[in-house]
Amino acid sequence: MTVQADRVPRIISMTNQVGGSGKSTSAVSLGAQLAEFGLKTLVVDADDQCDASVALGYMFPDQLEGQKTIYDCLTDKSVKLQDAIVPALCGPHGAEGTRVIDNLFLVLGSGEMENAEQYLTTAMARELWLKRLLDPVKGDYDVIIIDCPGSLGLVVIGAILVSDEVVACIKPGFKELRGLTRIEQKIAAVQEEFVEYGAHAQLTGVLLVDVPSHRSQGAVWDDGKKMAKEAYGDLVLPGSGEGQLGIRRSTKIPESYAHQKVLLYFDRAGDATADYLEVARAMGFKRVSK
Ligand SMILES: Nc1ncnc2c1ncn2[C@@H]1O[C@H](COP(=O)(O)OP(=O)(O)OP(=O)(O)O)[C@@H](O)[C@H]1O
Ligand SMILES: [Mg+2]
């Protein structure tokens, strides 16, 4: 594919203020699928747990010699985002057999992002932190996916502000569904406050993750699927197969993370892999011709 520096990427935030709701898994799994479609894709690891970085090969992002991270970019104006971008890997960094994933790139996360909220509290134009970083590089990518931390603080506000789309990842339950109202309110508030900075993000998808595939596996969660559909209609992203919603529960997901190999290549023929493919299609992405 020819490299153009003038693309208009789709910028998508994977959010939920609740921890463990499938944001990081979905950011990297969707990212890998889009890269496989031939779309140049950047995953931004904005969470101090660095799960997206780990999943894409970098177990200790703060310990790579001479390598900048997202935290360096946040706190030091002389560091450009470009300096924190690395190729995504299938397998652990430095291990034999590890390979670069074509078209997939990563803004390296950092454990120091645990100080980001505190840093931003007193920073100038704090809500614009990620816009300022992404603006110079975004024309190099077709898609940018931001893996947000499990909060709705300043880090996430900055992600929503720069995004076109917000996808809320949730486990299918009543309590989880109720939590989406807060995300919707935050999106509306960011739009209202920062419209002059181009804030225009919309909630464009509700992605159910870790969905039991048989009723016997979880009647409560099955009801959760129904409730999600009733509340959010077509925003609820499908999975693969008749009537399937979201990403089915799969032991391959935690296994793939432990092996630092994205699901697409760890379990190519698996159910959850097929579900992420369907989600990518439902979001309007398709394979690009070379
Ligand atoms: N479809 C699935 N089947 C089985 N396990 C899953 C599935 N999706 C996610 N998980 C597991 O659920 C856990 C939480 O997922 P993940 O780390 O993606 O959530 P998160 O929202 O990014 O969490 P945090 O807010 O802590 O960053 C992980 O252990 C992951 O392996
Ligand atoms: Mg995460």
UniProtKB/TrEMBL annotation:
InterPro entries: AAA_dom, DNA_Partitioning_ATPase, P-loop_NTPase. Gene3D superfamilies: P-loop containing nucleotide triphosphate hydrolases. Residues 10-193 form the AAA domain. This is AAA family ATPase. It comes from Streptomyces javensis. The lineage of its organism: Bacteria, Bacillati, Actinomycetota, Actinomycetes, Kitasatosporales.
